[in-house]
Amino acid sequence: MAQHKLIIVESPAKARTITKFLGRGYKVEASQGHIRDLPKSQIGVDEENNFEPKYITIRGRGEILTRIRKEAKAAKAVFLATDPDREGEAISWHLANILGIDPSTPCRVKFHEITEKEIKAAIKKPEPLDLKLVDAQQARRVLDRLVGYKISPLLWRKVRQGLSAGRVQSVATSMIVEREREIESFETEEYWTIGGEFKGFTARYQGMNGEKAELKSSADCENLVERLRTASYTVNNIKRGERKKHPAPPFTTSNLQQEASRKLGFTTSKTMQIAQQLYEGVDIQGVGTQGIVSYIRTDSTRISDEAIASIRDAISARFGENYLPAEPNTYKSRKSAQDAHEAIRPTNTEYRPEVLKASLTRDQYRLYKLIYDRFIASQMTPAIYDTLSAEIVADTGDRFTYSGQHKRFAGFTIVYEEGQDDTQEEADTALPLLENGDSATLVDVHADQHFTQPPPRYTEASLVHAMEDLGIGRPSTYAPTISTITMRGYITRKNKRLEPTELGIVVTDMMSSYFPDIVDTEFTADMERDLDDIEAGSKDWHNVISEFYGPFKKTLEIADQSIEKVEIEDQVSDIPCEKCGAMMVYKTGRFGRFLACPNFPNCRHTQALLKTISTPCPECGGKLFERVSKRGRRFYGCEHYPECQFVSWDQPVEDKCPDCSSRMVFKRTSKGDTYHLCTNESCKKRVPVAAPEDE
Prior knowledge:
The chain is α+β, with helices and mostly antiparallel strands. The protein contains 17 helices and 31 strands.
């Protein structure tokens, strides 16, 4: 008779962590994501039968499924413990179908952090599957399949093979294209400002006799500057006050992606890879494997009472009562927030970043510190600033204004301050000693030329922020959306800014002309709200798809007849073809950009773009290039070859071995797990890490 209970999770890393918590009475298996999905070879949606999806076992998952079936048959109970969101619920539903488990029985286990206490508590209170959540996921999957598999072949015929369209990716691309057009059409205007350097402070010129100055050229400033130099000045209208700056709420998924982009330079995909590791479990020296942050896909700022009590105790002990508000700080989530999970927070406030530093990789530490500091700051008192404003009036009627602030009490800023996109906060300065009626001594006056600036190109952080504001996508979709439109060649990154390619502009224009709803932000946001309504049980998913598909099908027929073939000229590189000497051109394939000979098919030579990696050569400090051997195997070599002979099949990394300080390289197991390996033959230490962000 079976003696153990089977728990099925998604990832092998999570399975290993949970196994250590539960002991001999349980066995934990990993599905490694979805087991079943729509087929890739066909649309997989029965349009004539109420849009029923046709699921098949995903290629390559047969062995996993066989193992899970075998373990389920031998177990006395099976618990489905996939991630607590739509995708996780759908994976559990598919597993229940495959294993013959009644979804209305208490078979579903949900936990929001991978800690021993949380896991053991969740196992004691299983619940039925939430079929409304499953319906919402199915609706999204079917909707995305209909859009992608109906429009993409049209793009192949009319533009280029290998292109794709998507419900969210097309909107994101369109936003980047529209921003580029705003920049191109922007008409720069000249303007001037005048600054006065007074003894003890700096002020800004405003105008004369209550009229605001409009200075459009240097000629507007010449006589004015001379008049200001000879005038006498008096301080008037002094206003002193106090300003409180309150802390930002703990992280949601999008906030984390934005802040990691601003402060750490991470892409959204890299942020989520590392956050997933912190959630699933890291090996803490002297403790064992623990998940050190709560669930990482959330749009809620809610925090449990237990977590708040813990962090308040930590604040009081570490900083003192002046830094602890009388009542816990509370934050409102967005109206569209599903609020199913808490905000992202550390699972144990005793695990301060400096305590765990030796157990984490450099990037894991940096991201964990960001999460920890943001959380502790969110429950601290405001920063308090003394403010001062004044008018400095000339006997000619000209007027300057002074405005300044000085931080009197640090409050939460002693721990953490939120980053900014393209904005600057007023500087913290010592306030001058001014009184009404004081005379002010002008030391110097200067006129400065400026030009109005177009709106900035999106960064990954600002694009995520804009998508969230517009209600486009959900916490789990931001990172893969940006990765997809980059890989398809619709956008490129330049100096951390996102620019559309010619291909992205052509595809967006075509979509805007023939599928305006698909690239319309409001339409896409309405569809997201429909999915939320399905999850809430107020709408039927079949009806939502049907209402969308009728008009969409007619639009598709018109587009197919009306769109003419578009030719996009290839961008020419400065690299000659090794076979025939022609200048190679840039192409985009399913794995990104590469170089190809323009004389195809007479010359079929292609080559990968030379990429540098951030790690310097360990022998001479030069740049390391990623290259491909004649047999297609990737390797790494120094830019100074042949003077420097360094070469490595494995990617060198900046991190040194924590045990022996030798060089480490990046490795991947056959199961897809990634780690850094010490190159010292007598050490060979392994440190689990995220995959490189360009993979």
